[in-house]
């Protein structure tokens, strides 16, 4: 089976009209570079930088972060690298930062909220990313965006960081800016958000958690944690449509991006960048290759009319 999948490793996936479909990797650090390169990832769709901040006694400084980002960027050559600013908080709390006692940490002090509340900390990371962006195709992504103001405030800190670096005569690149769409309010505001950024990336893990009010870590309700829920598929369809309307790419980087049964649906609504754990890349490429140039109009129409998880799952499992 492994051997059979090998042939997809260097395959470039393209639609009939020449538009490319990217199968990217989600990584947590330099240790994941080997596995993603071995499977022929087209780029890094999500670098979860919070892992650099965990399991240590102090904050990583600008130089230390810069060296790591630079190493990642250089190892993947000219392939795109989406570096997500820290999404700590919730279940990932470093000991050297002060956190409030929280009854609902997933809905608490986390992600972009922490970055915007600690501008120096945020600037340190943005400066390191801006410097690394000189060495390749880097994009910056903000997590947990729930309102337009957060994007504007984050971009304003980014602008300040850029100006400071230019004043210090430090060389920097010009990375594109994107946001995660993983909170339901961001879906409701997606058209306005699309006007503020260069790309969107759907985080299905948190989008499912927050939309369905199903804790992604709660075993007791794990059957209810599903991207097959019609509410999720309809919301994602709306995000894809906003991307087309405002002519910006819509990517996906939650676990559902590598789901074999859902891939035809993602391709059908026009999502052209799927990012996943390295182990999912080759099986996903096989499925994409099979579906890429088939007509998916009927599949999309049918699924979008179905009112239950069971019907959607059954219907998708019967497509060959
Ligand atoms: C997501 O929420 O889908 C996502 C990709 O981010 P994380 O899993 O790191 O929260
Ligand atoms: Mg998330």
From TrEMBL:
Catalytic activity: L-histidyl-[protein] + phosphoenolpyruvate = N(pros)-phospho-L-histidyl-[protein] + pyruvate
Alphabetical keyword list: Cytoplasm, Kinase, Magnesium, Metal-binding, Phosphotransferase system, Sugar transport, Transferase, Transport
Binding site for phosphoenolpyruvate: 48, 84, 205-206, 216
Predominant location category: cytoplasm
Subcellular location: Cytoplasm
Cofactors demanded by this protein: Mg(2+)
GO term, biological process aspect, one: phosphoenolpyruvate-dependent sugar phosphotransferase system
GO terms for cellular component: cytoplasm
Catalytic residues identified in the record: 253 (proton donor)
Domain of life of the organism encoding this protein: Bacteria
Binding site for Mg(2+): 182, 206
Transmembrane segments: none
PEP-utilising enzyme C-terminal domain location: 3-290
EC number: 2.7.3.9
GO MF annotations, alphabetized: kinase activity; metal ion binding; phosphoenolpyruvate-protein phosphotransferase activity
Function: General (non sugar-specific) component of the phosphoenolpyruvate-dependent sugar phosphotransferase system (sugar PTS). This major carbohydrate active-transport system catalyzes the phosphorylation of incoming sugar substrates concomitantly with their translocation across the cell membrane. Enzyme I transfers the phosphoryl group from phosphoenolpyruvate (PEP) to the phosphoryl carrier protein (HPr).
Family to which this protein belongs: Belongs to the PEP-utilizing enzyme family.
Protein name: Phosphoenolpyruvate-protein phosphotransferase
Organism expressing this protein natively: Halonatronomonas betaini
Gene: ptsP
């Amino acid at each position: 089976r492994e051997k059979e999948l090998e042939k997809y490793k260097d395959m470039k996936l393209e639609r009939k009209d020449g538009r490319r479909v990217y199968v990217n990797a989600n990584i947590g650090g330099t240790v994941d570079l080997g596995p993603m390169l071995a499977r022929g990832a087209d780029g890094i769709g999500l670098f979860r930088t919070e892992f650099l901040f965990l399991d240590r006694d102090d904050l990583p400084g600008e130089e230390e972060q810069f060296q790591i980002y630079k190493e990642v960027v250089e190892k993947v050559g000219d392939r795109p690298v989406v570096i997500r600013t820290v999404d700590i908080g919730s279940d990932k709390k470093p000991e050297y930062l002060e956190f409030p006692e929280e009854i609902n940490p997933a809905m608490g002090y986390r992600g972009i909220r922490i970055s915007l509340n600690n501008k120096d900390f945020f600037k340190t990371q943005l400066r390191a990313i801006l410097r690394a962006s000189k060495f390749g195709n880097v994009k910056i992504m903000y997590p947990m965006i729930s309102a337009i103001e957060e994007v504007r405030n984050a971009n304003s800190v980014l602008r300040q960081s850029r100006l400071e670096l230019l004043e210090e005569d430090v060389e920097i690149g010009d990375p594109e800016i994107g946001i995660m769409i993983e909170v339901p309010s961001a879906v409701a505001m997606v058209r306005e958000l699309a006007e503020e950024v260069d790309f969107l990336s759907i985080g299905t893990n948190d989008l499912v958690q927050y939309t369905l009010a199903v804790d992604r870590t709660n075993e007791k309700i794990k059957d209810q944690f599903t991207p097959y829920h019609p509410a999720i598929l309809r919301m994602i369809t709306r995000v894809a449509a906003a991307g087309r309307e405002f002519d910006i790419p819509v990517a996906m980087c939650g676990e559902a991006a590598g789901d074999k049964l859902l891939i035809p649906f993602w391709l059908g609504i026009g999502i052209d960048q799927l990012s996943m754990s390295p182990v999912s890349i080759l099986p996903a490429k096989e499925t994409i290759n099979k579906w890429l140039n088939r007509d998916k109009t009927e599949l999309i129409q049918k699924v979008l009319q179905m009112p239950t998880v069971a019907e959607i799952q059954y219907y998708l499992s019967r497509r060959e």
